[in-house]
Design a protein that fits this description.
There is one protein chain. Helix 2 packs antiparallel against helix 3 and helix 2 runs antiparallel to helix 4. The protein has a two-stranded antiparallel ribbon with strand order 1-2. It contains 4 helices and 2 strands. The protein starts with a helix and ends with a helix. It has one domain. The radius of gyration is 18 Å and the shape is elongated. It is mainly alpha-helical.
Amino acid sequence: MAYLDNLFGSQADRLNRTLNVTAERQGLLLHNLANVNTPGYKRQDCDFTIALDESMSSFNPKSRKQMPNEVHTDNTSLRIDGNNVDMEYEVMSIANTETRYNTLTELTSRYFSGLKNVIREGH
């Protein structure tokens, strides 16, 4: 991986890790929505903002900390059956996470387009 860091820089690694956390969160939110009517189901989530802040602040590629992919389970209950999934909140969170993912993919695309332009100019 050190070779790739030298070739692409640590920015590519940060973008990759942040995209992975975003995709993981989207999966958790979709799983919550799929279980909206499952008695006793407790919603799960991971804190994307902490992962993004840590990713963007880790400018030293030698100090590679793993993204905090901790999954949090909310043990409160909103209904008599013990389920605590709020469908409106989950749909809103899914839309928000999708927007973030699309923005990150655009940033990644622009990053590699810039590298491609640099390589072309070098010939």
